[in-house]
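Aim 2, interim progress. The first record below pairs a target sequence with its structure tokens.
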Amino acid sequence: MPGGLKPPRTGETGQGPGVRATALRLLPRWLVRHADFGFAALLTLSAAGVWTFATLASEVMEGETHAFDTALLLALRTPGTPSDPLGPPWVEEMARDVTALGGVGVLTFLTLAVTGLLWLQCRRGSALFLLVSVGMGLALSSAAKSLFDRPRPDLVPHGSHVYTASFPSGHSLMSAVTYLTLAVLLARTFPQRRLKAYVVALAVLVTVSVGASRVYLGVHWPTDVFAGWAAGGAWALFCAAVARGLARRGAIEPDPGD
């Protein structure tokens, strides 16, 4: 070429395939940095909970779970004496103590207490988000009970006073909604992962214990409790995903661990 200039080799210009290849190699790194896989995972688990609840509701309405419910409920009673739960009297009394942890009064007190704590920590966005999340969860529980209107178990005497329909278990649903949502919002205030895991594990333990106590006391069919766990867990996971998204946009306080 004139002046001894060499034509540019492929890849030496801004339009060459070398630059495009470099961009393609960098694209996965950009996606990893900017994609919120935690948000997607929470939404996926929430959807799985909704699907589980819908499946259980369909089976219950068709009467497909009656044999299972009956067998498990009677398995927790002394054979031949349905009025006597398994174990000594103190076990039944402890079950009443545990089931009270899922009552509206206890859950309301805990929600307001943690809301106050978050407010004093100047995490006011999180405090308001907690109130809305738990309040809507309570509305969800009431609406579901009115929709399905399943009668309470009549095979055994009730070990606790009941006033509403059986499906889904309100204690199980609201325990999952309240304790798991409280745990997620409190865990976000801790930078250490072990503290986050500890708080969430305690919430799961209490939620499971409350649901089990409802069956032991004979006030719910087992599938009522499973459906309550599924619906409450789905709502809590959805709220956790929303909280994560709001935090990334600055609408509520960010996670110190992020």
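The second target in this work package is listed in the same format:
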Amino acid sequence: MCRHLAYLGPPVSPSDAVLRAPHSLLVQSYAPLDMRGGGTVNVDGFGVGWFAGDGYPTRYRRADPIWTDGALPRLLEPVRTGSFLAAVRSGTPGMPVTETACAPFADDDWLFSHNGVVLGWPESMARLAAEIPVVDLLHLDAPTDSALLWRALRFDLRRGRDPVAAVADLSFRVEAGAPGSRLNLLLAGRDLLVATAWSHSLSVRTAGGGVLVASEPCDGDPAWQAVADGDLVVARRTRGADENVEPTVEISTVEKERSQA
């Protein structure tokens, strides 16, 4: 389980939402407001990923609590990016505490995070794992539920699946094998952000021409909107458009997106 957030919009520093805001991800790591049955302290690592000037994602991950990393503020302060994703982790019992188990998971086009837990792991995911090429499974980042979900999603994306449909469908495939799982999924690309609210809290704010999605509001801005359980947030920027172009935001039910898959 974790707390996570992602941004799409004009270039900003991730430092504000991650470290400096009144209820930043840093604060949420030790004083979350709503864990929905999870642990209170997210002590098992953290990660920040952003799309750099060359168009590819850069990641910084550690297996330590985010508040212990003295290098992070100086690292993030000069960064300006139009798309980033960050997460802090509370490891599920039985799963390893390692840097590679921390979100964001990534390839050349996407950053991914999972806030929640897959019940019955790993037996409940045998069918999902069987749909993934063996070579992909051999490259699993870590033996965790979140890492497997990323590999399953990555496989669909590389086959040309629509990202929004792929995220929505993954939720239903996991739920079918592991009913009652908590599956807040977060996918960020250069021009697209997709987030599900599935048995965990999620909020969205549109301000300053950008969209910020977070497990909990980072501040007291009244523009924050709670996302209903079962809803899907999609923020889009016209592909190839200047980063200063304001993204469009749509909120719909995951069921609707599944029916369009």
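The chain has a mean pLDDT of 93. This observation will shape the mutagenesis plan for the next reporting period.
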